[in-house]
Amino acid sequence: MKKALIVWGGWDGHQPKEVAEIFRGQLVEEGFEVEVSNTLESFADGEKLKGLDLIIPVWTMDRISQEWVNNVSAAVQSGVGLAGCHGGMCDAFRENTDWQFMTGGQWIAHPGNDGTEYTVNIKYNSSPLVEGIEDFTVSTEQYYLHVDPANEVLATTRFPVAPGPHSPNKTVDMPVVWTKRWGHGRVYYNSLGHQANIMEIPVVKELMRRGFNWCAEGKALAPSDLNAGAYTGMADNQL
């Protein structure tokens, strides 16, 4: 039985408790043993983290100790999967660039705020993770992010939709769903998920289900020499 840890908290506006419960239900249906925590101290035991198959942060904003970021990073580098959505993973700890390097991006704006209607465009044939999924429209926050060019982008959305200071620039396709590797570990992100009702949309829920499973499957494929060349972060990565 695969083991997953969900850690929720931070800004209440993203309904982290409710989103965490949706994710817990999905993972139980997929046969995971799931631990749910509402404290960042769950990242304090690095060896315990390495014994997991999947880590899911649902924690917007706030601050985190560098030691705990290093523990999560080491676990993922060893083969543990890391998956999350919206601000719960890619607007978690704004001061910590090591977290951003690992997750593949950082939120910077959502022009039009909540209720912006836009299309999510699936990149067909890009990955089995989006096989059979069609483009779809949502009405929610449209995330503008700074992203890692090494990400494998599986879905995008086009800016601008809502007017703003970015509008005079050319149109851009912003990643919505991506994967990347962090050492031997698999990382999955979906920028949807402003609140629990968005995570209940069937296509969004299916994208997350596939991402969770894909990330967790990577643990079994990791080589035995898990500590070779481990990245321990940058000394000047945060204020």
TrEMBL record:
Family annotation (Pfam families): ThuA
InterPro entries: Class_I_gatase-like, ThuA-like
Top-rank taxon, per record: Bacteria
Domain called ThuA-like: residue spans: 3-215
Listed name of the protein: ThuA-like domain-containing protein
